[in-house]
């Protein structure tokens, strides 16, 4: 019989995993919703953020996790800007398969460069000493670092939502996703919006890479494993939907956590089982792109 405290702790682990995963998935979903680009390089950019974090914390001697969490997303954002301007931008308006092939190629190049520069051995980052130990809620003991990751992820998601629904930038983003030609005709340079979304999404994924690094190993196959799960979650939530991406990430995080508790051998199965069920019942996902655009769900 599983104790109630174990169930509650497992729920908190799943919630934190889901919210941090949402930082990756929402960027992937926004890029698709805004730019109609299926970005297979998104997982590689997440991985690059984790490696830059490791480089700043461990390899070159700065040893400051907080600085790494700020600098690594900036470095990945610069890399994303180069990718968008010199490779993706010339392909806008062409067959979406071109975007898939291009970003898949970029992902492979990033992975091979990482192996060339830093080897194939797994790396690790230690959590900052300030967040050592655990906190107790009644009968539940929860690691301080995971609580920090949970709170920070939730705050960032809320901030992005407010940006999308309450600011002029958010209005322009939603309008561009709905009718790019009209926004361009009204005098707005849509290319600046596109690069902003692409760079911001990459920086967000890189931050998630640094944030999750103390919870697991950093290896060259990290990008592939993350992008597979991320695309499944995007399909579950609805292509291009911000709300769907967040909700699906939380559901998947909880399902995976509880499955790992009760049936560890099948911990990776719930995400794909849920994807199949959603596709059968609601092919557009929990928040389909048409509904999301009409209701400001991007």
What features would you highlight for this structure?
73% helix, mainly alpha, globular, 298 residues, two-stranded antiparallel sheet
Descriptive report:
By secondary structure, the chain is mainly α. The protein has one domain: ABC transporter involved in vitamin B12 uptake, BtuC, CATH 1.10.3470. The chain contains twelve helices and two strands, in the order ααααββαααααααα. A two-stranded antiparallel ribbon has the order 1-2. The longest helix is centred in the N-terminal third of the chain and has 32 residues. The chain is globular and about 60 Å long.
Average pLDDT over all residues: 89
Number of strands: 2
Major sheet strand order: 1-2
Give the percentage of residues in beta strands: under 5%
SS-based class = mainly alpha
- Top-tier CATH class: Mainly Alpha
Question: What percentage of residues falls in helices of 4 or more residues?
Answer: over 70%
Radius of gyration: 19 Å
């Amino acid at each position: 019989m599983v104790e109630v405290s174990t169930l509650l702790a497992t729920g908190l682990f799943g919630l934190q995993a889901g919210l941090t995963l949402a930082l990756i998935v929402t960027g992937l979903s926004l890029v698709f919703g805004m730019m109609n680009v299926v970005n297979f390089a998104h997982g590689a950019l997440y991985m690059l953020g984790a490696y830059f974090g490791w480089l700043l914390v461990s390899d070159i001697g700065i040893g400051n996790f907080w600085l790494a969490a700020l600098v690594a997303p900036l470095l990945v954002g610069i890399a994303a800007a180069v990718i968008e301007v010199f490779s993706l931008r010339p392909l806008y308006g062409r067959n979406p398969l071109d975007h898939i092939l291009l970003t898949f190629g970029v992902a492979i190049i990033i992975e091979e460069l990482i192996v060339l520069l830093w080897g194939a051995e797994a790396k690790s980052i230690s959590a900052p000493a300030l967040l050592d130990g655990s906190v107790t809620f009644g009968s539940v003991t929860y690691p301080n670092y995971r609580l920090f990751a949970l709170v920070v992820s939730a705050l960032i998601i809320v901030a992005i939502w407010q940006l999308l629904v309450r600011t002029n930038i958010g209005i322009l983003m939603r309008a561009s996703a709905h009718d790019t030609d009209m926004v361009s005709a009204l005098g707005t340079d849509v290319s600046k919006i596109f690069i902003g979304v692409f760079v911001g999404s990459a920086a967000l994924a890189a931050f998630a890479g640094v944030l999750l690094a103390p919870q697991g190993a950093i290896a060259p196959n990290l990008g592939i494993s993350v992008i597979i799960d991320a695309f499944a979650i995007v399909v579950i939530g609805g292509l291009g939907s911000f709300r769907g991406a967040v909700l699906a990430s939380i559901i998947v995080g909880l399902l995976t956590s509880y499955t790992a508790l009760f049936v560890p051998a099948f911990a990776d199965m719930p995400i794909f089982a849920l994807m199949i069920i959603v596709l059968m019942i609601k092919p557009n996902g929990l928040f389909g792109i048409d509904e999301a655009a009409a209701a400001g769900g991007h």
